[in-house]
Structure formats: C-alpha cells, structure tokens
Design goal:
Layout lengths: L6 H34 L1 H75 L9 E9 L7 E4 L12 E3 L4 E8 L4 E5 L6 E6 L5 E6 L6 E6 L10 E4 L11 E9 L7 E7 L8 E5 L23 H5 L6
Antiparallel strand pairs: 1-2, 1-12, 2-5, 3-4, 3-12, 4-5, 6-7, 6-9, 7-8, 8-11, 9-10, 10-11
Family: Belongs to the MreC family.
Pfam family, one: MreC
Protein name: Cell shape-determining protein MreC
Amino acid sequence: MTPSGGSWPAAIDGEAAARIARLMFYGLLAIVLMTLDYRGHYVESLRGLAWRALEPVFVAVEAPFDLGQRLGEEMRDRHELMDRLAVLERERREREAELVLLEELREDNRELRALLAASQRIAPSFQSAELMSIDLNPWSHRVLINRGSRDGLSPGQPVMDIHGVMGQVDEVALNTAQIILISDPDHALPVRVQRTGLRTVAYGSGRINQLRLTDLPMNVDLQPGDMLVTSGLGGAFPAGLPVAEVESLSRPVGEAFARATVRPVARLDRARHVLVVDSPGASAEPEETGTEGSGPDSEQPADNAATESTP
C-alpha cells in the first residue's frame, strides 16, 4: 500500500541524487587534494609538523626507560671495573712480592759471581728483519730475509721470533741473507733441559714442527712438557733462549741411546718478522752443573761433536 499522491518515490529519488552529488564532490575533492599533495608534498609537511609536536610526548614517555637502562649499564660497568681493579691489585701485590724475591736472587747471584770470579753475561742486542721468500724444496728448510752484510749480518748469527729460536744466518749477500731453520735436516743446536740441566743436541728432522734428540742416555730423566733452551755451547747462541718442548720419549730395545721428539716453540711456518741477534752473547758464565758435573769429562758425549749448523 503506497501513500496517497505518490510522494515516496519522489523523496527517494531526491535523497539518492543528493548522495550521488556528495560522493562526486568528495571524489573530486580527493583528486584535487592528491594532485596538490603530489606537487607540493603537503601531507609530508603536515606529518612532519605533527611528529615535531608529538616528539616531546614520546621523549617524556621513553625517558624513564632510557634512564633505567643507563643506570643498569653504569652499575654493571661499575661492578666490572671494581672486580677488575681487585684483580689488578692482587696481581700488583703478587708482582711486588716476585720483584722482592728476584731482587734477593739478584743479590745472591752477584755475591756468588764475586766469589767465583765469574764474568757477567753479555746481553745480546737485536735487529728486526722481514721474510722475503721461502725455499720451496721440502728437504731444505731455508728462508730469505731483507737484511744483509750492509746491515751488519754475518754467517752464524742466531735468528728468533718472539717465541723462541728459529735458526741462524747461513749465507749473506749485500741486502739479503739466507736463514737455515732449526728444523732443517742439516742443522744441529746444542740445548739444555731447563728442568734438569741435562745438555744434549737437537737435530732438525726435516719436518717443520719437529726436532729430534738422538743422543740421550737410556736412563735419561726427561718428561713430556720439559722445556729445552740453548745451552750456550759453541759460542753462536746465547744461553737460555727457548728452543722446543718435549713431546715424547722412546727407549728402543737393543739400542744404546734413547730418542725424543720435541716441538719448536718458534712459529717456523708462520712468522713473518724475525729478530737477528747482533751480539751472539758469548758468555763466560759457567753452565749449571745440575746432573752433569762441573768438569769437562762429565759433559754428554754429543756435546763435544755438536755444532750450531752442519750445512
């Protein structure tokens, strides 16, 4: 049933026309605004203004959290620093005690030298050099350095890195020098077992990470981990330079001597910079007697035949 006079369809048509007109207006307005924003970037400007207006609010909200985080980090850093200071203070006291003991030992050593009329050890000096090339022959462990005769080098001088003995100068040119490594099969180095004072000779094995001790008595007191240092015999190497660490000891049945394999402490295959000992440290200081006795007849048999290099 419809109202009299047919007023509903007319009212509906008028309302729909108004809605369509508003929709077209809003659509046109949106197109105009997008065109203006594309050309003038007004929306970005308004967004920037809004962000600058709201930024203090965000800062105020984040401030307590940032403050708490900074305080936590500062407290943690403070505790770490206090712990580190405690460790350093303890180490300082230990070093001071060690220095006191060393000073006492130095005084005792000075008195003993005076009693024995022994000369002081000559402190060696060094000059640095850099590796230039490596001999590719697997049976010849030799390297070339950028120092030569015009730098004062001469055959026989010891060469070492920061860890220990590497070898010695073999051949010298004007600006370069060839170094024979202690692992070369033609090299032999008089050494001393630091723990017992036993003297022997370390021979190159042809392997970059291994030396051989072949002239050991069958009842030798030698253990894995023992440190070998230069004995000073032969006059080329100063006494006391670290050479190698004992890895294993074998006593073959039916043979006259025990054998040991040792690992060089120097980085023979990785060192790039080396030190050449200028003053070989010819020392008149007598070696520790230890288990060897004090006379020449009590030396190990291998010492008399040992040479610093047997090229």
